[in-house]
Amino acid sequence: MATTRGTWAYRDEFGDAFGRTYFRRFGPGVVSSVGLGTYLGDPTDTVDAEYERALVAGLEGGCNVVDTATNYRCGRSERVVGRALENADVDREAVVVATKGGFLPFDGERPDDPARYVRERFVENGPVDPADLVAGYHCIAPDAIEASLDRSLDALGVETVDCYYVHNPETQLRERSREAVYDQLEATFERLERRVAAGDIGRYGVATWQAFRVPPEDDAYLSLPAVVDRARAAAETVGREETGFEVVQLPFNVHMADAFSVAAHEFEGERRSALAVADALDLDVVTSASLGQGELVSGLPEAVDAELTGETPAQRAINFARSAPAVTCALVGSHDPAHVAENIAAGTFDPMGARAFDAVFE
């Protein structure tokens, strides 16, 4: 697992090549503020090989955060991450490995009959109660998440996942009330608290797409303070003094800045944005879609672009995400080593200061 000594040693090895705030505190250790994502790409051997080369290049080039999920690329991404960890000339204790559970994964390729696959693999012969299944492929019930975690540990070939996310819990809102989703999250958080205590995961959180950045009247809304309260209750139930819920993942970029601009959450008597609440609660924020899934590599809005540093539009877009309050790491997905090098080099430039960042929204 990632350790304080391992991550700080990594920072000491690479830190002089980057800007002052490139490495940031994460728990007792430090992480690069640019992370490697593994979502995009076809589930093929060719893309596997590309990803492995890119991940090794990133790990050996100053990026010690790798993010994946049990369902990414039909389960292939986790396996590729495991191979990259084994083959990179980097200590395992220096790398923060994050994965997610919630969407039921395929095994290497998309089956001809996905519904039948899910029924036979996960419902009839697995941990999923059909009453907990939403949209035919999403389940965050305790047994399912615990089985997903075990599957991830095996696929990654690691003893500990440093950061484990419940994946897009707002998907459950398609068929359940908010209160029912909070209840199920609390029950699942109890399991995850026990796995933190057992050393199987370092910390946990939720990875969302809409939940925390949409207003309360939106059908996909979940309250970040309410979710944190449920995590604290789960920790108390299992006898832990502090919760292992320490991180949230959400999309953030120039075109998807709602996590900063939308005051969606009631907190301490006022409405605040997701990033403001995360900052107040001392939660780490990891941004997904930092390049708008590739859209921003061709350029940013002129007024914003002028305020950012970086040699390329991609670097400036990454530095926008790195500039937001409470953001610890901006994820960027790429299976091209040259693109990985370009993205990591964004960290050789300093992000925007708080006043300059705020001014973009005025």
TrEMBL record:
Q: Which InterPro entries match?
A: AKR2_Oxidoreductase (IPR053135), NAD(P)_OxRdtase_dom_sf (IPR036812), NADP_OxRdtase_dom (IPR023210)
Q: Pfam families attached here?
A: Aldo_ket_red (PF00248)
Which branch of life, at top level?
Answer: Archaea
Domain (NADP-dependent oxidoreductase) spans 34-211
Tell me which Gene3D superfamilies the record gives.
Answer: NADP-dependent oxidoreductase domain
Q: Which PANTHER family does this entry report, sorted A to Z?
A: D-THREO-ALDOSE 1-DEHYDROGENASE, NADP-DEPENDENT OXIDOREDUCTASE DOMAIN-CONTAINING PROTEIN
Q: What is this protein called?
A: Predicted oxidoreductase
What organism, scientifically named, is this protein from?
Haloplanus vescus
The lineage, from the top, is: Archaea, Methanobacteriati, Methanobacteriota, Stenosarchaea group, Halobacteria
